[in-house]
Amino acid sequence: MKIIRKITSSEFLRNTTTLISGTAIAQVLLLIFAPLISRLFNADDFSVYGVFVAMYSVLGAVITLRYDMAVMLPTEERKARNVVALCMMNALILTIVFFVIALLFRDQIALLFDFESTSWILLLVPPAALFLALNTILMTWYNRNKQYKVIAANRILRNGLLTGSNVGFGFASFGSVGLILSQILSDGLAACYYLYTYFKNSIGFRVKRAEINSVAREYSDFPKFTLPATFIDVFSAQLPILLIASLYSKSLSGSYFFAWRILAIPIAIIGSAYAQTFYQKFVSYVQKQDFHFARLFLRKSWLLLGILITIPAVVLFFWGEPLFVFIFGNEWSESGKISSILILYVMFAFVSSPTSSTFIALGMQKYNLVFSSVVLLYRFAAIYTGYILNDFYLGLILLVIFEVIEIIVYNLVALVKLKMLIEKQKNQ
Questions:
Q1: What's the total number of domains in the chain?
Q2: Could you give the CA distance from residue 345 to residue 337 in angstroms, rounded to a whole number?
């Protein structure tokens, strides 16, 4: 009983449970309605939607210049609020810049991915990226202040709107446009919810240009090192769907994107929620220079996440195709085949991605650029090799093998860094 009381009284566990509960409710909505949505839209629709998501995900990750990663770091609240203001200013200015670019080159971009008839949807990419960036900035702010109920409520709102509008636009036969409008609607209203709650609690705070310039200089390592690494990392994460859409068929790219969307649910339910509370706690260990406990916490996190993902991964590895056909319909047989290969990568990513923030907390941003560059190269090489040899699944298998190796090496580097810090403390 003492052990149970100790576990349930843990602030970290309560915070993680709050986030996981909110995320789980949000993702379960998507999971419940996925069999219906899969019958309202086809693989071609998901192909166009996948390209749109890839584009706005890349822009949304970089238009803050990655200063959002610095929101957690200041000890003073005023300084942290100035970082938030800096992020919002960057995001708004760069959204306008990219909108002009989309206006000038949308036809050429649409031709590359074979959706010339709906090239106007590229004009929606910059505002969608702005909504994504605002959600990211303010989610980090609320994570800093341990307001996990706000984050959980936002996630429920976001996915509830996404799922409901998917169904509505699906019945109205909007096709890929319906999927895209659903994404913008859900992200936009979720961002408005965050903005309302943030400014409601910011009465009395005044933005000063000198203070914003000061935090911009203080955390300049983020645009210098983290921004290029993030761009390469996010771009390379979206590269498979972009390459498959341009090199193969719409049907195949749509099947890949649908498979990835389903496989990403466990990462979204548990992984992303755990990542936020992990980062907050890990940073606190580093700030106190408790590197031994930081390493112990990191290892325990890997063990916990590994236990959670193993059984679902085994099931999908052996029975991916029949499960997808049974749940989502015959059209998604290809997605089932793809999922049985991707699941090995998803398993390692599920364990590693929540703890990848160790590089930021340990001041190792410059190493992220090296890893991200390698990842970009092998993702392109794997998919393009499959194209050259006319064997999509060979390219996919190569991709998964490279991903697993990279994740293992990445985490070993973090462990080595922690070991060095521990040894340095002993010698002082």
A1: 1
A2: 14
| pLDDT of the residue at 21 | 65
147 in a structural domain: yes
**Alpha-carbon separation of residue 283 from 7, 96, 130 (angstroms):** 21, 34, 27
- What DSSP string runs through 88-143? HHHHHHHHHHHHHHHHHHHHHHHHHTT-GGGGGGGGGHHHHHHHHHHHHHHHHHHH
Residue 305 to residue 153: CA distance in whole angstroms:
24
Cβ density class 310-324: b for 16+ within 10 Å, e for less: eebbeebeeebbebb
Which residues have a Cβ under 8 Å from the Cβ of 403 and sit 6 or more positions away? 345, 348, 349
**Rounded to 5 degrees, what angle do the CA atoms 64, 65, 66 make?**
80
Our CA angle for 354, 359, 362, nearest 5°, is: 120
Q: Counting Cβ atoms within 10 Å, is residue 200 exposed (0-12), middle (13-18) or buried (19+)?
A: exposed
Tokens matching residue 17: 């449970």
- Do the domain assignments include residue 2? no
Q: What is the pLDDT of residues 99-133, one digit of tens each?
A: 999 999 998 988 888 777 788 999 999 999 999 99
Please list, residue by residue across 267-295, b when 16 or more beta carbons sit within 10 angstroms of its beta carbon and e when fewer do.
Answer: bbbbbbbbbbbbbbbbbbbbeeeebeebb
Which of 29, 45, 28 minimizes the C-alpha distance to 331? 45
**Is residue 105 one of the residues assigned to a domain?**
yes
Going by C-alpha positions, the residue among 54, 368, 410 that lies closest to residue 227 is 368
Closest Cα partner for 255 from 174, 366, 332, 157?
A: 332
CA distance 324 to 41: 15
CA distances from 114 to 50, 56, 100 (A): 13, 18, 22
How many C-beta atoms lie closer than 10 Å to residue 198's C-beta?
18
Mean pLDDT of 287-301: 86
Is residue 296 in a domain?
yes
pTM over 0.90: no
Which residue range is the domain that position 268 belongs to?
Answer: 11-427
